[in-house]
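Teaching assistant's notes for section 4

Start the section by putting this record on the projector. Ask students to predict, before seeing the second block, whether TrbC/VIRB2 family protein will look compact or extended. Collect guesses on the board.
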Amino acid sequence: MTAPEAIALWYAQNLTTNPLQGWIQNNIVPLILLGIAIILLWIGGRGDNAGVARRSVGLLVGLVALGIAVSGTGPQVGQFLASLITG
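Reveal the predicted structure now:
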């Protein structure tokens, strides 16, 4: 099978990555967030509240970026941010 035939077969089967994306969103992302929460609680237990606050702000920025990437609303968010600057 040549490369064009393989590509045609792939398109004919209508293969997507949606099941894999759904599995990652439903399983991997919550595990990562749980791990981050445990680390923040451990740091807070040592009395480093400033460190927890600093890491929490970074976590929130990361979660916003993850939400934009997962929802596919990147262009709309970019247009909104650009409209804040340009008016």
